[in-house]
Specification:
The structure holds 2 protein chains of 2 kinds. By secondary structure, chain A is an alpha+beta fold. Chain A is built from 3 helices and 10 strands; from the N terminus they run αββαβββββββαβ. In chain A, β1 and β2 form a beta hairpin. Chain B has a single domain, classed as Domain of unknown function DUF1254 (Immunoglobulin-like). The chains are: A alpha+beta, B alpha+beta.
Chain lengths: 189, 185
Amino acid sequence: MNPVVRIVVVAVTGIVLGLFATWITMRGLPGAVSSGVWVTNLTTGSPASDPYTRARVALHGLFALNRNETIYYTATKDDGGERLDGKCRYELRGRDPNARWWSITAYGGDDFLIANPQNIYSVSATSVVRGKDGSFSVAVGGARGPGANWIPAGDGAFSLTLRLYNPGPEVALDPSQAALPSLKRIGCP
Amino acid sequence: MNEKRQEWLFWGAVTILIAAIVHLGTVWLLPRVVMMRALDRLGTPNTMHVGHRPDATSRTIVRPSPDILYATCPYDLSKGPLRLTAPVVRANYWSVSAFDGATNNFFVKNDQQTTGNSLEVLVIRRGQTWPALDNAVERVILFSPSERGLLLIRAVIDSDKHLPALEAALNGARCGTVASAKKLR
């Protein structure tokens, strides 16, 4: 092979391989700690985060605060380990997490809010309707049902982000110990 | 034959080396590029920008919270230090945070950590001349690790009826370059 052609082939192959490796490692938010279906990373937003975490947060969760201020949990799968699909219907069930304020928001595969005629994107500590015992049940995806709490989820892959603003000290210390809502698949059409 | 094999090994190693350099370089570069693009999209530097309540049409920054009203001040310290003054909103949650050019969250202060009705944040680079101090009740001085970055105010929208008051409070925030007086080392 001509030496110039060889150098070009090696350089292009190296660049393509390098970019492919970056693409592979940049998919989705970084996770290291989980509580049920909820996954988070201890160094999100922190100057101490490693270059991979920093890059993934920049792509999928820009301007995240550090974990003492806010913990961001993401769910991409249900309790059964199946990928979340907006055509299916799910039930979030639980109690208020240990934090000053919280919210659960649905995002599409492009990391933006999912358009819906009702303009409903989330439930929060202030908007969720609780039962007499203080627990709540939130329908996610599918058509709106009779329940008071519902988050539409489009008709494709989606994820949920649970934000805990000013988490309790125990949760900030070990986010895997947080008691967080379960996410059960009710059914798919 | 042996020479041919060595040649293949050599070029294989060069390919892997190039791939490793490109991979590590892009991983390092990504947050910086994302940050610069975000700062450009957020508007004029050293000016406060108050957004509307995020919805499905909000596509400037990924994963916006629909329950938070955001105000941003993209800063550029090339012309001098920056001063932000903001009324403190005492509701479910309010904070001012700072992000450097690599997306790191290097400062945050929330309403429960403030005592006054307003907070002043001075952002300065090491070696930059010190701005004249006013008589702010509560002041934080930040040394920014980078020339460009972002100050971000978050306020929880606890109900639609409180939205106008929240918008008014965030519209009361100001940020801009300030005159310098004393050199810091």
